[in-house]
């Protein structure tokens, strides 16, 4: 088995409507806005679940043990390069806008959505856009905080 390189192999979309987050359809995904082409290289932030520990060590134990607790996402956001002229992403991802962040990994970003692909679907609302501080030798950038509003499906399968 070979390792999968992440460069150019992550597709990210904002989709306004998905009937089943376990099986988003190709049509639903195609109706979304592709984000990855104007995201910064480090622009997919915090979409890593963390599982809390539940300590369950007994008084008579000589080894500390834990069980699996709640899963949490924190600091989720999308980071973009600002586009001149019409910037559909900037104009769409406004504070309070509800939708879904859909992430597909390990397949070329340029590859179209197709049935049977594995994706992650995050029911979300956008926070207030935050401009990154100006720096020399860089393009203008901004971040959109993403509030995950209900349990995501981290192993969804695209339906036809």
Radius of gyration, rounded? 18 Å
> Given the helix and strand composition, which structural class is it?
mainly beta
Query: What is the number of beta strands?
Result: 11
What's the overall average pLDDT, rounded?
97
Largest sheet: 9 strands, antiparallel
State the separation between the terminal residues, measured CA to CA: 29 Å
Indicate the overall shape: globular
The number of helical elements comes to 2
Strand content: 35-45%
**Helical residues, percent:** under 10%
Please provide the ordered H/E string of secondary-structure elements.
EHEEEEEHEEEEE
Low-confidence parts: none
Protein model, in words:
6% of the residues lie in helices and 41% in strands. It contains 2 helices and 11 strands. The strands form 2 sheets. Strands 1, 2, 3, 6, 7, 8, 9, 10 and 11 form a 9-stranded antiparallel beta sheet that branches. The chain has a two-stranded antiparallel sheet with strand order 4-5.
